[in-house]
Design brief:
DNA-binding, MarR/SlyA-like, about 60% helix
Length: about 150
């Protein structure tokens, strides 16, 4: 009998991710935003005033990588850093009017890629697949936190 761990799926997950990025980036090139920049902009649009470390945590990225994304977004006029009124050493991040002007278009691009990717897939199938992927993510996060996947609540 085949066990779940005998089924190789890592390459498939990677391929889907790469293709999703490629098609998103291809459509979003007219706005000058990569997918990573779009994710950061969207997060800041919904949660303005985050610190860079808080944004990194929300995006599940390393702070140094988020710093580079924010540097590029700031240089392109999509994000601005403002001093934190409670901490002179810290900065808060805010989207600019330029970013607000492209949010709706970027949402349409993301929805279009999702639509193309899910042709022939029912909502129930997608919800089931997402549930399984979330459980895998939780299992792997448990390992990062010194636990064991069996400790994850289902």
């Amino acid at each position: 009998m085949t066990k779940a761990e005998d089924i190789s799926f890592g390459y498939l997950l990677n391929d889907v991710t790469l293709l999703f990025r490629k098609h998103f980036d291809r459509r979003a090139v007219k706005f000058g935003l990569t997918r990573a920049q779009w994710r950061a902009t969207k997060m800041l649009y919904h949660r303005e005033g985050l610190r860079q470390t808080e944004l990194a945590e929300s995006l599940e990225m390393e702070p140094i990588a988020v710093g580079r994304v924010i540097d590029r977004l700031q240089a392109a006029g999509f994000v601005e850093r403002r001093p934190d009124p409670k901490d002179r050493r810290a900065w808060r991040l805010y989207v600019t009017d330029q970013a607000r002007g492209v949010i709706a278009d970027m949402e349409l691009i993301a929805k279009g890629v999702r639509k193309d990717a899910t042709v022939g897939i029912t909502v129930a199938e997608l919800e089931h697949a997402l549930g399984v992927l979330n459980r895998m993510k939780e299992n792997l996060q448990a390992l990062d936190n010194g636990g064991h996947p069996d400790d994850v609540e289902v």
